[in-house]
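Weekly puzzle thread! Below is a chain. First person to post its structure in token form gets bragging rights.
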Amino acid sequence: MTRRNGSPPSLAVWKFASCDGCQLTVLDCEDELLLLAEQVQIATFAEASSAMVGGPYDVSLVEGSITTPVDERRIKAIRAQSGILVAIGACATAGGIQALRNFADVAEYTSVVYAHPEYISSLATSTPASAHVTVDYELRGCPID
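Winning reply:
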């Protein structure tokens, strides 16, 4: 499996608001992951390595929900650099446990929980990646298996 320029396809794995369970599930596929690593360039996968290769990426896996303005900008930048974007897990496909806050007043909670709520920058809701960008595929589950 190679691209037209002779290089292997690139894979990037991205984390947003989540417990990392889906990334850990991918890492648990030890033998399969080693075989995959022989066929593709793992460009970025923070749970597995500190190495990061710049895009564009052939495939991006996105774990976690979008909860902050920074997340919103990041998911749009990742989408722009990704040929195929796959949302993995309940957080990335449906907002996850963080979406429970969608039924409450986030400003009220931050004022009670944080000594300096003025330093907290948060969206009013926790949403799946597809609420912000086009997602090509979804792997549902918590965690994926």
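Puzzle host: Confirmed. Bonus trivia for everyone else. The CA atoms of residues 87 and 138 lie 5 Å apart.
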